[in-house]
Design goal:
The complex is a heterodimer of chains A (119) and B (207).
Chain A (H helix, E strand, L loop, with lengths): L32 E4 L12 H9 L4 E2 H8 L3 H13 L3 E4 L11 H12 L2
Antiparallel strand pairs in A: 1-2, 1-3
Helix pairs in contact in A: 2-3
Chain B lengths: L24 E9 L5 H8 L5 E6 L7 H10 L3 E12 L2 E7 L8 H7 L2 E9 L7 H10 L3 E6 L9 H8 L7 E4 L4 H24 L1
Parallel strand pairs in B: 1-4, 1-5, 5-6, 6-7
Antiparallel strand pairs in B: 2-3, 3-4
Helix pairs in contact in B: 1-6
The chains are: A mainly alpha (119), B alpha/beta (207).
Chain lengths: 119, 207
């Protein structure tokens, strides 16, 4: 019942995060969009392998949930890795569109509706 | 530092550095309903990517003691979340999240529903009661939703009006007969949800 070891990972997920279990910085949600900075900051230290995988994945913007799915890691672990990368100015994180039920964003809704209509 | 969190996760340190390409704006819709009602099927039929899955290890933190008792027994150690994506425009992406069906995972629904435009509650006509709890969940929290009646093999033995009555739905909640396997059918359910949101928004503005 070890589950996620099919990919040959030899360490348990939380050892990837140095034992930390809380993000150190931004409030990452499932649909926060992550993008790798280009160029990368030059003073930066060498990223860990899991960090590098994220940086490669997010060369094009990608949602946190998708990063987790593609790395086959729990979202909670990915968020910690992302916090490291954000802290090191290696990625940018765009929070999701805010949803306010009291004052709905009609323009946004119309855009979504038009987009669905084109499917 | 600690005081300004939560409410507005506005652009943080991120604004300082440059990204290669601009990140799109992201919104989400939840696809909910009882276990095995066709949530992942619906996500898959409209998503531009094959549904992706994340597995989250369960910790005792989010669970009641009662829930834990059940889990011990079944040795469920992760909760899976299936989702898909629809690129609306270059700068707007819609994510669809299938909510975990089993009631013991409902603590995740609270997190999932934060920031959602709304939800589709899928109902299986053969056992509509399996989606009652989902309807209650969104009603109580004031999260807008439509009901999609997923026909078994695309067949619909009951008219929408009858199902609406059986589910005791308020008038403003749309009921659509659908086939979650069909892209256009699933798309139409999503469009009905957005139309309902637009109606509510324009109605609110007019009154």
């Amino acid at each position: 019942m070890t589950g996620g070891d099919a990919g040959g990972r030899l360490v348990r997920p939380f050892t990837l995060t140095g034992g930390r279990t809380r993000p150190s910085r931004a409030d990452f949600t499932l649909i926060t969009t992550v993008t790798t900075c280009d160029p990368q900051p030059d003073r930066a230290t060498r990223p860990q392998p899991e960090h590098l995988r994220i940086l490669r994945l997010c060369a094009e913007p990608m949602a946190v949930a998708e990063v987790a799915a593609r790395l086959d890691l729990p979202v909670s672990v990915v968020v910690i890795l992302l916090s490291d990368l954000l802290e090191a100015d290696r990625i940018t994180a765009r929070p999701p569109h805010p949803v306010n039920r009291a004052t709905p964003d009609l323009d946004l809704l119309q855009k979504v509706r038009d987009g669905l209509g084109r499917l | 530092m600690a005081g300004s969190d939560r409410a507005a996760p506005a652009p943080t340190a991120s604004a300082r550095s440059t990204a290669r390409s601009a990140a799109p704006d992201a919104v989400k819709i939840l696809i909910a309903g009882g276990f095995g009602v066709g949530k992942t099927t619906m996500v898959g039929s409209v998503s531009e990517i094959s549904p992706l899955r994340t597995e989250e290890p369960l910790t005792a933190a989010g669970l009641d003691v009662d829930d834990l008792a059940g889990i011990e027994e079944k040795r469920a150690t992760t909760v899976a979340l299936d989702f898909g994506r629809i690129t609306i425009t270059r700068d707007l992406v819609l994510y669809l999240f299938g909510t975990p069906g089993q009631q013991r995972f409902w603590f995740m629904w609270n997190d999932l529903s934060i920031g959602a435009l709304g939800a589709v509650v899928l109902v299986d006509v053969r056992r509509p009661e399996s989606s009652f709890a989902a309807i209650d969940f969104f009603e109580r929290r004031g999260i807008p939703f439509v009901v999609g009646v997923n026909g078994f093999h695309g067949r619909h033995p009951y008219p929408a009006a009858e199902i609406r009555e059986a589910l005791a739905l308020p008038d403003h909640v749309q009921v659509l007969l659908c086939d979650a396997r069909e892209r256009t059918s699933s798309r139409d359910v999503l469009i009905a949800l957005i139309d309902q949101l637009i109606d509510a928004a324009t109605g609110a503005a007019a009154s």
